[in-house]
Amino acid sequence: MRKELIGLFSGFRDHHFPEEIAARLREELPARKSLIFISAWPEEYTRNDEDADGMHVMFAEQGIPFEAHCVIDDRTDPSEAKRLVEGADCIFLMGGNATAQMGLIREKKILEPIRDSRAVMLGVSAGAMNIGKTVIDIWEIAPAGEGEEISVMQDNLSFGEGQTSFAMQDELLPYEGLGMSDITILSHYDESDRERCDRIFAASAIHPVWAMADGSAIFIKNGRIDTTGTIHYAEKGEIRPLTQEIIDAAEQNEFRKVFDTIPDAFDRYRPRYSEELFHSLIEYADIGPGTKVLELGPGTGQASEPVINTGCDYHAIELGEHLCRKMQEKYGQLANFHIVNDDFITHDFGGETYDLIYSAATIQWIPEEVAYGKTLSLLKPGGVLAMLLTNSEYRSGNEALYQRIQKLYDTYYHPDIPYTHGGFRYTAAPEYGFEKVEKREFYGKREFSAEEYVAFSGTHCDHIVIPEPERGVFFRGLHDAVEEAGGRIVFNDTYVLYLTRKPSN
Hints:
Layout: E1 6-9, H1 19-28, E2 34-40, H2 45-61, E3 68-72, H3 78-86, E4 90-96, H4 98-107, H5 111-116, E5 120-124, H6 126-131, E6 134-135, E7 175-176, E8 185-186, H7 194-206, E9 209-212, E10 217-221, E11 224-228, E12 231-235, E13 238-241, H8 244-255, H9 263-269, H10 275-285, E14 292-296, H11 305-308, E15 313-318, H12 321-331, E16 337-341, E17 354-360, H13 368-378, E18 379-393, H14 399-412, E19 438-449, H15 450-457, H16 461-464, H17 470-484, E20 488-501
Parallel strand pairs: 1-5, 2-3, 2-4, 4-5, 8-9, 14-15, 14-17, 15-16, 17-18
Antiparallel strand pairs: 1-10, 6-7, 9-12, 10-11, 12-13, 18-20, 19-20
Helix pairs in contact: 14-17, 15-17
C-alpha cells in the first residue's frame, strides 16, 4: 500500500534532526505507539540496539516520543517481525549495508507486510535507497535473491566532460527495492569526495539518481514531493542541482500510481463498460482462442473479464502493485491469464506481438508518442488498438443538485498536484502509422446513494490528492448535497470506444 508519508534522508549531522525535518515529522506522526527500526547490519546486535536507542532519542528530543521501539535484525523471528511491522506507526529503515538490509527483509518474509503497511515509512542512507523501486548500491555487489534474476544495465556508460569512470563500475548491479517510489537515491553526496562522486557518476549512467547531501530530505505523500537541503540530480554521467522541473516530472510519475493506494475502493466503485461495447470490440478485433491480447493498466479488471472469457491468450501490464495483486486474486487461476507488474513505458516485451492491444481509461497517462509508437511496434500486422473511456453527465434533470455540487468544486477542489493527462488525442493514431480511427458510442446509467457517491468520488486521482482539511470538508459537502436532494444521484454514462489498426503491410 502506498504510504501516508515516505521520508528519505541521507544522514543527520551531529545525530539530530534538522528543524525542517523535525517539523514535518511532528505534523505527520500523530500516532506514536510503535516505532520499528529495520537494521542494515543484521548480525551486529549491540550496534543495532545502540543505534535504535539513539534514533529513538532523536525523535523524543524533537517532541516526537514513541511509547515503544524495537529493531528487527537477525535475532528476530519471522513471525515476530511480521507482527511488529503490521503494528507499527512508523517504520524506519536504518543506514548501513543496503543489500544486507534487503536480504534481511526477504529472509524475515516482511517484504509484503512492509508494502501493505499504512505506517509512515522513513529511511536514512541505505534505508532510503531501499525504499525506491530501483536500487544501486555503489559500494556492494548486489546478489540475486532466491529465484530472482538481476538485470545488469551497463551498456553505453558515458561521463560528463572531465569525468572518468572508476575501476569497479562492472560491479554496479541495480536490484529491486521496496518499490514505494520511482526515485533512486544515493546518499552522503559531497563534491569534495572524489571516489564517491565517481561512483555516483557511474551509477547515473545506468539509472538517473538523486544525490542527497547529509541534512537533506525528500518527502513523498499522495504523489506530492517536497525537498529540503542540498540535493543534486545525476543522469548519464552528468550531475546538476535538482530543479523544480525535475521534481515536477517526478511528481507526475508518482501521481500515476496514486490509484494503488485504494485497490478495494477502486475495484468496487470504478465504472464498468456496457456489454454492447465489448461485443463490438471483440467482433471488430476477431478475438477468441488462438489470438493474443494485451491490456494496458487493467486496474482491478473493469474491462478485463469479457475479453478473458473469449478464451484468448490474455496478457496485462499494470503499474500498481496492489492493483496487480487484485487482478491475480480474481483471475490468476485461469490458464489464459497472464499479468506483469511494471511500467508499460519502460517494460521490455522481449519481441512479443499481439492481435489486440487495448486500454480502458489508461492510455492517456502515457505520453502520446510513446503510447502510439510502442503499441504500433507491439501489434502484429493488421492488429487492433482499442481505447475505451467513460464520459459521465450527472445533471440528470436535477439542476439544483448539479449547481450545488459545482459550488463545492469551486470552493474546495484544489488538488495538490494538477491532473495533466487530459490532453491525449484519441484520434491522432494515423499520425503515428495507424489506419483511420473509428469512434463508437454506447450508453448506460449508474445510480449512487450519498455514501456511494462520496466513495466513488474518492477513487479519482485528483480527488485523492486534495489536501486536508479541505478534502474532508469537500467530501462531507458532496454527501450532504446528495442526501438533501433525496439521497440519490444519477449518472448518465457514455462509453466511448476508439478503434484503429496497424496496416497489414
